[in-house]
Design goal:
Elements (H helix, E strand, L loop, with lengths): L1 E6 L5 E6 L8 E6 L13 H7 L1 E6 L15 H14 L5 E6 L1 H12 L4 E7 L18 H11 L2 H8 L11 H5 L22 H10 L14 E6 L7 H10 L3 E6 L11 H12 L1
Parallel strand pairs: 3-4, 3-5, 5-6, 6-7, 7-8
Antiparallel strand pairs: 1-2, 2-4
Helix pairs in contact: 2-3, 4-5, 4-7, 5-7
């Protein structure tokens, strides 16, 4: 795995990852990580990626890992960062895969980088905050409501919330907790303080970006899109997946009964296979 530090025009550093440097014969798949995680490509999918011919590309979003914070960043500004990574690596077309809030960043990237995107799949993506006819907060766990309401009150309010000593309770389901005894226990190694060694900016700006205008319209995505969601998800309720499926023109929705926010990752490998099927 190559790890690269790219210096951007505004002086920021973007820490990126490339699993198969220079191998243009492989399909480049951009991984958008969740909150609060590092951007390293998903270890539980590396073996499947090998036999599928995948070249994983990813980066730590600003404020995470080795990437400089960018207060006020949006979905579209992160897509601009992705463009810098792709161009630096000489990658033209690619597919996108994102987990949790990373799924929303994947969708925004697909909306902005339209003709370069061959396919996109998300696992538990969050819908735009201004989504019409969606009760955006409905069904969210108590800690999630507090965190996102603070973000909706502005970045300063979100900073106060994150530095108040509040503890986030994801209220994982039994099926979610069971995942930490298997390959996806990997999430524990890239989460929390491991992802935010320089403070909470990554989490703060992620949550703020979810309640800001995306700066793009996901309903204009032209690439084939697979949305995967669990019906027992209380972190990002499946109503978000349903709204996205109803409003994206080339999307299909997989709803999985009884699966929560982490256990939906049992369908990550089939989703990766779906990407390969779409791209030939």
């Amino acid at each position: 795995m190559d790890e690269i530090d790219l210096r951007l025009a505004d002086g920021r550093i973007l820490h990126a990852y490339d699993s198969a440097p220079g191998d243009d014969a492989r399909l480049a798949v951009v991984w958008h990580h969740g909150t609060p995680n590092l951007g390293v490509p998903p270890e539980p999918l590396i073996e499947a990626g090998e036999w599928l011919g995948i070249r994983w590309i990813s980066f730590d979003r600003p404020g995470y890992g080795g990437s400089t914070a960018a207060p006020g960043r949006t979905m579209s500004s992160v897509a601009a960062d992705l463009t810098t990574v792709l161009d630096a690596l000489g990658i033209g077309t690619f597919a996108l895969m994102g987990y949790s809030g990373g799924g929303s960043f994947a969708l925004a990237s697909a909306a902005i980088l339209r003709e370069r995107v061959e396919a996109v799949t998300t696992l538990a993506a969050i819908a735009p905050y201004d989504a019409k006819d969606l009760d955006w907060y409905d069904g969210m766990v108590t800690s999630g409501l507090a965190s996102l309401h603070a973000a909706a009150d502005g970045r300063e309010a979100k900073v106060r919330h994150e530095t108040s000593g509040v503890e986030y309770d994801p209220e994982f389901t039994a099926s979610d907790i069971a995942m930490f005894d298997g390959p996806w226990s990997w999430l524990g190694s890239i989460a929390g303080s491991n992802a935010t060694p320089n403070g909470p900016d990554g989490v703060i700006d992620d949550d703020c970006s979810y309640v800001l205008d995306w700066g793009c319209d996901p309903t204009t995505i032209t690439a084939p899109t697979l949305l995967v969601h669990g019906t027992a998800d209380g972190i990002i309720p499946c109503s978000h997946g349903k709204w996205l499926a109803a409003n994206l023109p080339n999307a299909e929705l997989e709803l999985h009964d009884g699966l929560g926010h982490v256990s939906v990752l049992t369908h990550a490998e089939p989703a990766l296979e779906w990407i390969r099927e779409q791209t030939g």
